[in-house]
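Input record (one chain):
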Amino acid sequence: MPMIKYNPFQSELEDFPTGLRLFQDSLSRLLSEPASRPWTPAVDIYETENELVMKADIPDVDPKNVGIQLENGTLTLKGERKFENEQRNGKGFHRIERSYGTFVRAFSLPDTVDGDKVKADYKNGVLTITLPKKEVAKPKTINVEISNN
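The corresponding structure, as predicted from the sequence alone:
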């Protein structure tokens, strides 16, 4: 008989196929309070010639509840999506799948970012943070001069 090491932190469903893991995720969502579920907004980061641009999906997050901090080459994005446990027309929720609560994301930035010129904009549930590059980091074209000697 094979020995199985007991791990109190391992879920009994982890050994089951993927389909059952999806069931486990749904079950854990049902059993936990909506306001206490951890969530992490999806982020895209891309680079242009003059800047780095970060876009974070944070729908239903009040921009007043968003904090952006740049310190020692690390950009930290914090915020909170609040759960309003109100009834709609006297009826309760039938399903709650979205996560609520606080989030924190931290990103290491290259030394080429000019921290004094960072801008942030919020539109249609997307937070866009523009991180301009320092002049030193921008590519320069050097023309070759032709001499007539």
